[in-house]
Amino acid sequence: MSVSTNRTARVTRRPGDGRSLVSTFVGYAVLVFFSLVFLYPFVIQIANSLKTGPDAAVNPLSPIPHPLSLASYERVFFGTDLPLWLGNSLLVTIIVTVGRVFLDSLAGYALARLRFRGRRTMFAAIVAVIAVPGVVLFIPKFLVLNQLGLYDSYAALILPVIADAAGVFIMKQFFESIPISVEEAARIDGAGVFRTFWSVVLPMARPALITLTIISFQGTWNEFPHSLVAVQSPSLFTLPRGLADLVSGSLGVGTQYPLKLGAAVLATIPVAVIFVIFQRYFIRGANEGADKG
Amino acid sequence: MEITSRSARRPLGRRSATRENLAGWLFLAPVVAVLGLFLLLPIVMALWVSLTSWNGQGSPFTGKVPFVGLDNYTRLFTRDDLARQDFMTSIRNNMYYVVIVVPVQTVLALGLALIVNSRMLKGKSFFRSAFFFPSVTSSVAISVVFLFIFANSGAVTSLLGFFGIKGPEWFSDPRGVLHLLLSGLGLVDADAPPAALTGGGPFGLSWWEWLAGPSVAMCTIIILVVWTTSGTFMLMFLAALQDIPVTLEEASLLDGANRWQRFRYVTLPMLKPTVFLVLTLGLIATWQVFDQVYVMSQGNPSKTTLTPAFLSYQTAFRSFDYGSGTAISFVLFLIIVVLTLVQRWVMRERSADAGGGRGTRQRRS
Fold first, then answer.
1. Is A11 within the bounds of a domain?
2. Looking at the complex, does the CB of residue B24 fall below 8 Å from at least one CB of chain A?
3. CB within 8 Å of chain A, chain B residues 121-160
4. Number of domains in chain A
5. What is the pLDDT of residue A289?
């Protein structure tokens, strides 16, 4: 941080740089323009979910609903299965996130610290798995769920995604970065492998655990194609699946936009809240993604 | 002394090694089980299914399911029927999609990162978050928003109306942008294309069809995806920019390099690995576009937003031709792998050139 402020001071105060004022202005203009481009769609989304159908059709750009109407949310909650989808999404997301954080750290720790036969091979295999494009797995996943008799159940929504290779990779990298001396001290004191992991190493891994929790939550909450090939009963739909069904299906097109946008707002809110609180970790998560490439 | 201590240490060492071996596998077991059962096994099963004409009834692993060999694969390229035409159309659509999305999102991400990173400006973290936010939201939810924004009575149409432009009916417009451009320039007449182009062409599509460009409807998906993914890539560029040593830029300032020269000969070479990464990730992701197609267009209008990923889904789960659907997804897999390798090879040549010939090394000495 201090380095960057130093840099700022040094460069902006260079004498005789009249042009920098102009370029500062242009810089801000570009930034403000793109902020509008990137954020205004969300303003439109929220504003129009609070409008009446005709108002949304006539003034789609206006950020102010006129008149303000909560009718679309009323219909979303009482006229559709959305409360059910919301519940399913919460249930699946929480279980998967907890599962991933625990299982991925166990595996990451083993790959980072424990010497066992086949460690290198297993690590190479996990890296290879990260590279498999998800789109190739749609039909295969359905096949295996079908064959195991899990198709169209909560287990189908949860089990296939309860561990992920990228998370193992992130945790392994992190465990390798913390000094080994603390663990060795614990081991000399007679703590077993799991005990050392659980009460010594994991508490030190907080930043990585938070990062992994957040990317797992976000990824699972937004997950769409998996639910498409894992379940078919509307009672098992997650929110994205239900939303997709709402848009393409029964309720028709045109005047229903406030309703659809309201449902979309509800699907966006949890991740948005977490984003605002844990921005740092989101950004770290994105760059972890960069490191593994 | 020595002997006793060594003999005392060894059995203990062996015992703890055995314990560690066991612990290692126990720790790894759940992840291995999940990935094996729901990733590796399914791929093997799917390889088998792609050699059959299973229709979804019963189990695909009984003797009753007809075995068709490589037919599901070869028909995509050789047989003159609707399946090949759909597949080739989806390849064409996705090709144009990739060719536009990947460079545009890379340049946009780099540009935004450069501006956000600029020292003169404050509020860096706000802008960074603003640009990144779309990347973390649900692809389905955001597709719904764009459906509204590009609807006939939607925001874009009324925005264009402000400037007196009558926008197209985005989602129902199957006209190819390249066709529109060519006829706009007066080179060809889109309503009566030249016979030389419509007469024939590779893989069952005429040259005219291959040269359509992305349809107007596809452009909305292109805009949506560029909009959602640029933020993530901007973060990667930002991280890389912050790793560039300040001294390097100061040295170039002293050398009297202007802003463009500094970017071209100092910043860009340092960013080369990140550019490569962003292009690779972009290429891999764009060939898999699915969610947006599912929500916004389902491949319509006139199959101009059909992509191999969606076609594979549609063939299996809607037409119950699981063999063909699986074959399409494996061909797609192959396309992604081959393109990634080609790109890696091309970029390696380039970076070898840059490292050997130009600038940085000579200047430093």
1. no
2. yes
3. 121, 123, 125-149, 151, 153-155, 158-159
4. 2
5. 57
B155: how many CB neighbours lie within 10 A of its CB?
Answer: 21
Do both B245 and B347 map to the same domain? yes
Among B255-264, B279-288, B301-310, whose mean pLDDT is lowest?
B255-264
Q: Which of residues 165-224 of B touch A (CB under 8 A)?
A: none
In a domain, B208, yes or no: no
pLDDT tens digits, residue range B109-144? 999 999 888 877 788 888 889 999 999 999 999 999
Q: Are residues A28 and A90 in the same domain?
A: no
User: Is the pLDDT confidence value at B34 over 90?
Assistant: yes
Structurally, how many domains does chain B consist of?
2
- Judgement on whether residues B20 and B102 belong to the same structural domain of the protein: no
pLDDT of residue B21: 86
Q: What is the predicted pLDDT for the residue at B153?
A: 75
Query: Computed from CA positions of residues B102, B108, B111, B114, in that sequence, does the dihedral angle turn out positive or negative?
Result: negative
Domain that holds residue A123: 80-292
Q: Which residue has the higher pLDDT, B153 or A235?
A: A235
**Residue B52 forms beta bridges with which residues?**
B67
**Residue in B311, B307, B304, B299 with CA at minimum distance from that of residue B174:** B304
Q: Does B116 touch chain A (CB under 8 A)?
A: yes
Residue range of the domain that includes B112: 85-176+213-364
DSSP secondary structure, A206-252, as one string: HHHHHHHHHHHHHHHHH--HHHHHH---GGG--HHHHHHHHHHSTT-
- Determine the residue among B12, B19, B20, B28 to mutate to test chain A binding: the one whose Cβ has the most chain A Cβ atoms within 10 Å: B28
Q: Within this chain, do residues A54 and A152 fall inside the same structural domain, yes or no?
A: no
Number of C-beta neighbours around residue A107 at 10 A? 29
pLDDT digits (tens, 9 = 90+) for A35-49: 999 999 999 999 988
Residue that has been written with the tokens 């108002």 in this structure: A55
The reply to whether ipTM tops 0.90 is: no
Point out the least confidently predicted range of A69-78, A263-272, B309-318, B346-355.
B346-355
Quick one: pLDDT band at residue B69, thresholds 50, 70, 90? Answer: confident
The C-alpha atoms of residue B272 and residue B104 are separated, in whole angstroms, by 17
- Chain B residues close to A112, C-beta within 8 Å: none
Candidates A7, A111, A268; nearest CB to B141: A268
Residue A218 touches chain B, beta carbons under 8 Å: yes
A62–B contact, CB cutoff 8 A: no
Cross-chain residue pair A34–B42, CB shorter than 8 Å: no
Q: Please indicate, yes or no, if residue A9 is contained in any of the structural domains.
A: no
Based on the fold, state whether residues A38 and A137 are members of the same structural domain. no
